[in-house]
Amino acid sequence: MFDKKFLEKLNEAKKIVFFTGAGISAESGIPTFRGADGIWKKMKPEELASFDAFMRNPDLVWEWYQHRRNIINNTKPNAGHYAIAEFEKYYDVTVVTQNIDNLHRRAGSTKIFELHGNIERNYCINCRTFYNSPELEITSGVPKCKKCGGLIRPDVVWFGEVLPQDQFNGAEAAAEYSDICFVVGTSAVVYPAAYIPMSAKQAGSYIVEINIEPTELTRYADYSIFGKAGEVLPQILEEVKKIKS
Ligand code: BV8
Ligand code: ZN
Question: How many CB atoms lie within 10 A of CB 165?
Fold first, then answer.
């Protein structure tokens, strides 16, 4: 079923990183970033996920995130997220995700670096007071800060914005010290996040890609497994249980 070299690596490994993108949440019903769903099909996400777009039309951008939050609130982690959480029984696991949907945490993973923020958190662009999504009166249009009246935005990293340094640095260190770096459900076109698996490779980690199609990263991967994350990850976990039993 799986490549012999890969099974040997699973046997020897101590530290594992899972670098994940929108594809791991696809089977939970969350549209992938490029496959933007429904009414947003006509607009490129990059035109909405930027500070300029927000300042140009705060209500539209807020509605888009409210739309995505509503989808996320009605989904739950899938077998792929749960398998990654269960890997913690056998290895020192770090999850590095580009996703903002909080599903890894809800599946039980305990060490997570969120490179692009988290849609459950919001803050005032004026005084940086934080608001959790549920506490915001879900009025139509962008909510205003209770303290200063400023516009409230989602705590996600938009295009043209820098990533949270503590998250990026922690993720890079974990990747460089990993024995295996799984790259799951990402097109690997968004930077600087896409540098993480490259740093792992340069530091000698064994790169395993799990995707339904080849990507920008495929040529760098030591092993590519084509299939759905929600099916492949539980199959790998079964192999681990055999190896570790
Ligand atoms: C930065 C949060 C600079 C928001 C996101 C021009 C101007 C400014 C910057 C740039 C520019 N040109 C390029 C850049 C750099 C830019 C960038 O990389 N652009 C790309 C598009 C070329 N990066 C930035 O802007 C970053 N900041 O550079 O700042 C700077 C530097 C110093 C000082 C000041 C400024 C910030 C990037 C972060 C943007 N925010 N998200 C939100 O989500 O609303 S990125 C967004 O894209 C999501 O995080 C998402 O994760 C990511 C897309 O990647 P994927 O997760 O891979 O999703 P995608 O849909 O692409 O792919 C899904 C994959 O899953 C596919 O391969 C598919 O085959 C697979 N799949 C599907 N189903 C399954 C599956 N696999 C397995 N199983 C399945 N079932
Ligand atoms: Zn404020």
Answer: 8
Tell me what the mean pLDDT of segment 95-110 comes to: 98
Residue 121 CA to ligand 2 center (angstroms) comes to 15
Containing H/E element for 24? helix 23-26
Identified catalytic residue from 67, 81, 104, 116? 116
Nearest residue CA, atom 40 of ligand 1? 158
pLDDT of residue 234: 98
Name the phi and psi angles at 80, rounded to 5.
-70, -45
Is the pLDDT at 123 greater than 80? The verdict is yes
User: Does ligand 1 come within 6 angstroms of the Cβ of 81?
Assistant: no
Instruction: Give yes or no for a contact between 80 and 98, defined as CB atoms under 8 angstroms apart.
Output: no
Task: Please give the mean pLDDT across all residues of the chain.
Answer: 93
Tell me which CATH homologous superfamily contains domain 31-74+121-156.
Answer: SIR2/SIRT2 'Small Domain' (3.30.1600.10)
Q: Boundaries of CATH 3.40.50.1220 in the chain?
A: 1-29+78-116+163-245
* 3-class secondary-structure state, position 235: helix
Whether residue 67 has pLDDT greater than 70: yes
Q: How far is the CA of 14 from the centre of ligand 1 (A)?
A: 29
Q: How many CA atoms lie within 13 A of 220 on its CB side?
A: 19
pTM for the full predicted model: 0.95
CATH code linked to domain 1-29+78-116+163-245: 3.40.50.1220
Structure tokens given for 10: 């699973």
User: What mean pLDDT do residues 139-154 have?
Assistant: 92
